[in-house]
Amino acid sequence: MGLGGHRRRCAHGRVVRPVRGAGADQRPVAALRRLDGPAPGRPLGNSVVGARRARREVRRPGRAARRAAPGGEPGSGRVGPAGAGAERRDRRGDLHRFRLAPGGGRVSGPVRLLDQLVGLVAELGNRHLFGVLGDANMFFVDEYRRTGGRYVAAAEEKAAVLMATGYARRGGRPGVVTVTHGPGLANTVAALVDAERDKSPVLVVAGETPPEDPDHLQWLPQRELVEAIGVTYLRVDAPGELAARFAEAVAELTARRGPVVLGIPSTFMFEEVVPEADRPPAAHRPAGRVDEDALDAALGILATSRRGILLAGRGATGPGMREVLLQLAEAADLDVATTLLAKDFFAEHPRDLGVFGTFSTASATERIARADCIVALGASLNRWTTADATLLSGARLIAVDDVVDPAAGAWARPDVVLRADAGDVAALLTQGLRQLGPREPRVRPAADLAPPSPAPIDVYVGALDEALPRDRTVVCDGGRFMVRALHGMRVADPRALVHTLGFGSIGLGLGNAVGAAVAAPEQPTVLLVGDGGLMLAGWSELHTIVRERLDVTIAVFNDAAYGAEHQHFVGRGLDPSVTEFDWPSFAEVASGFGWATATLESPADAERIGPLLRQRDRPTLLDLRLDPLQVPTTTG
After folding, report:
1. What pLDDT was estimated at residue 271?
2. Residue 59: which domain range?
3. 321 and 218, same structural domain?
């Protein structure tokens, strides 16, 4: 094709048509070199694109060599037998030639790879796909929608991955997201790191540039990029490999090893594949058997404990687990507490100490410091739960988890480890303690779980907590506000709390809120976010929420500053003005996206929150103004 007919693709794979005639001379130099080679008399390595080609020729054969195949000639542009290219073009032009059976079942004959991919995604058990379109994934998304799946289009790839992460965190099943190659995948890095730190089961179906085009404008060493941040990358090197690579991805997700990126070259989508007739289902990991010696050791510790605490993590909050754990607490005369992610699991029980860790109240921290035994079930025992291991000193530790090795972290050295199901272990411990006979219960004062000095932010949070139904999803962004916001906003189910703290970043909450709202549409979703976090997240996904008709409320704790940095400047006696901002009116911006809005200038206006939220008929944003000098960073 001559220069005048060449189509250049923008960063997201959209075709940009050049101006004919003189417009051809206005092309970027790199694009001209990519088409015509280096300038006469100029070495290949001196051109921008040519230099990249020269570097890659060390690792991979040249384009002409790869294109040569039986029936093809080096440099001819043909792959395989003569006419194969024409057949592939015919298949691309016939979107309905190969189709999965109704309902997503398999057919016996050949199908397009994109049809097989749609069927494999459907077999994961959800019918939601998040993503951003590009030329590498657009036909997959289109076919997914044609076969009845719901596609939630994000405006930006990082937000798309965050949506899938929020969906997984709230729904308890894998989130699936698709992005195009190169820039599309590069934009997901921060969101992928957050999902990896939390081991969230997220499958990213990413395009790859055509293998036969090493000079593609959007080429990127995708595997190296993804693996550098600790995320698994599985590449489909041939169309027939899709089912095997997909099964590997599902195994990773099932084992709770975090997100997986599945890379598929864009040119594979319309290739024919023959689905396996009876592919074996993913292996189910059986629960570990309880070690009887370890169980006896744990019983000995509990039987002699006088100030013990049962610590429940999210891994021990499944259906029926509350009663099972409370029976153990009664049998061993233990106080009960939870990690942040299991917040409110024991709410209103007289033994409850609230959150165990850096979010503990002063009263709970005192009780924890006196403990002589801690039995942790389904808890990761990280640095925040253990407060850099300081909360575990002086207490014997029994750790129970069937997924994560409790002894593998740097912050806990358990005396007894039980790698088995938390419910099974709790029931066996309860049975063993009851066989030992009753014990005299200790006298315990009720734990004071309220902040001793209510701050202005507590007034806002209390009004939000009362105004929204108790059955709600709470998504919390990062920021100084979150200490009091998380303390005051209750949830009926620990899985209804979606955090975004894995990477220590602000600005990750908005995407998570979209995904969580899709996963639990029967409940309202409230996003707690600071002004800096909302600005960093960007406003574009407000339109996504309106378009998808999601019941989302955003509460912006707006101190017109980067609060944590503001605190550091003030603490050193320095001028904090560099951390302060004159933001635009959040209410006016959100109104432009079709949101209901209100600006509350001070906590004295908090009484307006109830009527506003009870009468809401569309997404609502509340701009809650605060003084940056009056936002506490502790629970007490």
Report:
1. 96
2. 3-88
3. no
- Within the chain, how many helices (H) and strands (E) appear? 23, 22
For 30-34, 201-205, 232-236, 293-297, which range has the lowest pLDDT when averaged over its residues? 30-34
Q: Are 527 and 379 within 8 A, CB to CB? A: no
The CATH number that applies at residue 208 is: 3.40.50.970
pLDDT of residue 380: 86
Residue ending a domain, among 435, 466, 486, is 435
618: in domain: yes
Q: Residue 288 is encoded by which pair of tokens?
A: 């570990």
pLDDT greater at residue 152 or residue 67: 152
pLDDT of amino acid 399 = 96
Q: How many CB atoms lie within 10 A of CB 632?
A: 17
The whole-model pTM stands at: 0.81
Helix (H, G, I), strand (E, B), or coil: what is residue 476?
strand
Identify whether the C-beta of residue 610 lies closer than 8 Å to the C-beta of residue 464: no
User: What DSSP state is assigned to residue 624?
Assistant: E
C-alpha neighbours within 13 Å on the C-beta side of residue 137:
31
Q: Which residues contact 300 (CB under 8 A, 6 or more apart)?
A: none
| Confidence at residue 75, expressed as pLDDT on a 0 to 100 scale | 35
Confirm whether 447 is domain-assigned: no
pLDDT of residue 20: 35
In whole angstroms, what is the distance from residue 106 CA to residue 171 CA?
27
Judged against a pLDDT cut of 80, whether residue 105 lies above it is answered with no
Tell me, rounded to whole angstroms, the distance of Cα 467 from its chain centroid. 28
pLDDT over 90 at 282, yes or no: no
Q: How far apart, in whole angstroms, are the C-alpha atoms of residue 569 and residue 578?
A: 9
What is the C-alpha separation between 398 and 407, in angstroms, rounded? 10
The one-letter amino acid code at 76 reads S
Instruction: Find the range with the poorest average confidence among 8-22, 27-41, 135-149, 605-619.
Output: 27-41
Name the 3-class secondary structure at 9. strand
pLDDT digits (tens, 9 = 90+) for 519-539: 999 999 999 999 999 999 999
pLDDT at residue 632, rounded to an integer: 87
Q: How far apart are CA 446 and CA 261, in angstroms?
A: 49
Give the count of domains, the chain: 4
Residue 111 exposure: Cα atoms within 13 Å on the Cβ side? 22
DSSP result, 10-26: -TTS-EEPPPSGGGGGG
Beta-strand relationship, 497-499 and 473-476: parallel
Q: Look up residue 604 and give its DSSP letter.
A: G
As a whole number of angstroms, the distance between CA 353 and CA 205 comes to 43
Is the Cα torsion angle 535, 538, 543, 549 positive or negative in sign? Answer: negative
Taking the C-alpha atoms of residue 148 and residue 533, their distance in angstroms, rounded to an integer, is 35
Whether 442 maps to a domain, the answer reads no
